[in-house]
């Protein structure tokens, strides 16, 4: 996610803000900017690309003053560019805004503000906030900010700078992290602690729905209804490196724990409030386009390919058209049959995966329509595809993909539901049930994270094994593939995934006394079949760890240990059930003393064939 830094005090705001943004570079970004109060005016300097580009501009155009805000942007609405970089200003240049998150209703607000004569300079959702501040300003910065946040929907962290109120900044948090650093005659604002650790170790961590008024001589906190909040400072004891990871031991663990937020952000603005339909404004397909799709090819690599296997099952069930899933490095070299009406879907976390990009170009050359699912707005895949669904996972630092995978699943669920509703394949009650289940995924993910101590104990006992097997049927099979890949990637334990019904066709020869088998049991229509397969491996001496829903007491009688998941629809269970598998891989790697975030022989973005 993006990085925010704000400062009110006596130091050079340029030094503090740019230095803080540099500490947040690990979060990933594609542009940066700073706004400061200088000479009674709001002055802003912005640049696409790395912080070095911004620093070069500031060298030629330095900002004076000791009050200001800065931002590193990870593009969501609008391509990476100087114009789309934050901070954003209103028409009169009185307000400057930096913002992390998503304004769900920005299109409606933008249209309203355009009618009232406001002129926009960017493609972003954030700029509507600056113009709303101008439109609703009542002479008081706090009450105006409260009125503005009542008009916007979504998840956000927001900092406001006002030319006519030079002694304070306003910070607001709703779902997106924001902290206030406490100093002597100076105060700091940041989206993450590393940005301000050089200056203070005492911080207020804003809770959801809180606003802070930040002045040189102190900080006041309020609820969004205006009620005062008495907060206690948090003293940071982490070193600078641990602070970048939010206190987590590794980026991978941090990113596993970020999945509730990532899922929520990917859903935000795409599900109607009454759960009656999916809204994908980035597609906005005509009925003819939706009806003209006769088959779908999903093309991806590695973890994204596993997401595609789930997508195949979901699309075929909801839309009732044939779907093929190909590994990109194979798809580009085989004689593909893709007649008119074939939609090619490419999935890539980075949007720069060489094999996937080549497959996209081959599909385009054949005349196929290409839909991309990617985590990077300005990537090659995003630029070259006909349509793009962005996963709002935010930057993923660890090589092993976690939150990118779960948000790819969410994007596939959303697209499948969208296409089914546009083609009239789902009843209203079916749509509501599915979207209600999707909407509950963030909370379910939070509950699953509570299983971490149990998984850590299991990993501690079995970290020394040489072989592990993952089994499942239906949607549990691609989930087993992803669990095995994670374990191999970072623990270096040999792991194999099998469709559970295939065990009898040779694999049982490898199951001996004490071999761990991870059995996934979330597909209720296949429950009895999977239970029979579990009994087969138990009869050969396997130690079986089962994953199933809360309330399933029968499985506990057939396995050695059970991890319970919150109940959800079997169709969306992979987005929840994958989290214990990620944790298992993580803790096994830690027990074996491996470099979790940078496993051997692997790279985050594979940009060569």
Q: What can you tell me about this protein's structure?
A:
Helix 3 crosses helix 4 (127-136) and helix 8 (259-267) runs parallel beside helix 14. The chain starts with a strand and ends in an 18-residue tail after the last helix. The strands form four sheets. It has an eight-stranded antiparallel sheet, with helices on one face. With 609 residues, the protein is an alpha/beta fold. It folds into three domains: 3-244, 4-Layer Sandwich (Glutamine Phosphoribosylpyrophosphate, subunit 1, domain 1); 253-439, Rossmann fold (3-Layer(aba) Sandwich), CATH 3.40.50.10490; 446-591, Rossmann fold (3-Layer(aba) Sandwich).
Note the total helix count.
20
The shape is globular
Low-confidence parts lasting 5 or more residues at pLDDT below 50? none
What's the level 1 CATH class of the largest domain? Alpha Beta
Q: Largest sheet at a glance?
A: 8 strands, antiparallel
CATH overall fold name of the largest domain = Glutamine Phosphoribosylpyrophosphate, subunit 1, domain 1
Strand content: 15-25%
CATH architecture label name of the largest domain:
4-Layer Sandwich
């Amino acid at each position: 996610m993006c990085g925010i830094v704000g400062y009110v005090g006596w130091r050079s705001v340029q030094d503090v803000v740019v230095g803080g943004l540099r500490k947040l570079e690990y979060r990933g970004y594609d542009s940066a900017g700073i706004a400061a109060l200088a000479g009674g005016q709001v002055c802003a300097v912005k640049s696409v690309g790395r912080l070095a580009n911004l620093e070069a501009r500031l060298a030629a155009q330095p900002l004076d003053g000791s009050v200001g805000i800065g931002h590193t942007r990870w593009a969501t609405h609008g391509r990476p560019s100087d114009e789309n970089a934050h901070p954003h200003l209103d028409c009169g240049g009185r307000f400057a805004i930096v913002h992390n998150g998503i304004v769900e209703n920005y299109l409606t607000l933008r249209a309203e503000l355009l009618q009232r004569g406001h002129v926009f300079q960017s493609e972003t959702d954030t700029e509507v906030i600056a113009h709303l501040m101008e439109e609703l300003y009542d002479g008081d910065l706090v009450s105006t900010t409260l009125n503005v946040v009542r008009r916007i929907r979504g998840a956000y962290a927001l900092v406001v700078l006002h030319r006519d109120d030079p002694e304070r900044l306003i910070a607001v948090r709703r779902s997106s992290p924001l902290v206030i650093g406490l100093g002597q005659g100076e105060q700091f604002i940041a989206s993450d602690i590393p940005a301000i650790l050089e200056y203070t170790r005492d911080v207020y961590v804003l809770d959801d729905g809180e606003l802070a008024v930040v002045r040189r001589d102190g900080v006041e906190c309020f609820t969004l209804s205006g009620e005062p909040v008495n907060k206690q400072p948090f003293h940071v004891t982490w070193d600078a490196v641990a602070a970048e990871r939010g206190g987590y031991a590794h980026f991978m663990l941090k990113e596993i724990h970020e999945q509730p937020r990532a899922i929520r952000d990917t859903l935000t603005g795409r599900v109607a409030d009454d759960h009656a339909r999916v809204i994908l404004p980035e597609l906005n397909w005509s009925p003819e386009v939706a009806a003209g799709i006769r088959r779908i090819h999903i093309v991806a690599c590695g973890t994204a390919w596993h997401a595609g296997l789930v997508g195949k099952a979901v699309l075929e069930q909801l839309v009732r058209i044939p779907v093929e899933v190909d590994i990109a490095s194979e798809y580009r070299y085989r004689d593909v049959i893709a007649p008119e009406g074939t939609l090619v879907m490419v999935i890539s976390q980075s949007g720069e995966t060489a094999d996937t990009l080549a497959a996209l170009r081959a599909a385009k050359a054949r005349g196929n329509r290409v839909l991309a699912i990617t985590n990077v707005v300005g990537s090659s895949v995003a630029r070259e595809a006909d349509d793009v669904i962005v996963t709002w996972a935010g930057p993923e630092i660890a090589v092993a993909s976690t939150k990118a995978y779960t948000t790819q699943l969410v994007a596939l669920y959303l697209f499948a539901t969208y296409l089914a509703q546009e083609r009239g394949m789902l009843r209203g009650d079916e749509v509501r049930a599915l979207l209600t289940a999707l909407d509950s995924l963030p909370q379910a993910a939070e509950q699953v994270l509570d299983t971490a101590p149990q998984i850590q104990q299991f990993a501690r006992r079995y970290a020394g094994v040489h072989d592990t097997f993952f089994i499942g049927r239906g949607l549990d099979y691609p989930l087993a593939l992803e669990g095995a890949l994670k374990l191999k990637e970072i623990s270096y334990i040999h792991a194999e995934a099998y469709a559970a019904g295939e065990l009898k066709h040779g694999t049982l020869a490898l199951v001996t006394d004490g071999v761990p088998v991870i059995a996934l049991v979330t597909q209720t229509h296949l429950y009895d079949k999977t239970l029979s397969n579990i009994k087969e491996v138990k009869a050969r001496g396997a130690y079986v760890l089962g994953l199933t829903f809360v309330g399933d007491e029968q499985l506990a009688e057939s396995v050695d240990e059970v991890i319970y998941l919150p109940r959800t629809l079997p169709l969306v269970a992979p987005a929840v059930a994958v989290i214990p598998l990620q944790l298992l891989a993580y803790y096994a790697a830690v027990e074996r003393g491996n470099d979790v975030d940078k496993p051997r022989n692997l790279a985050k973005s594979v940009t060569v064939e």
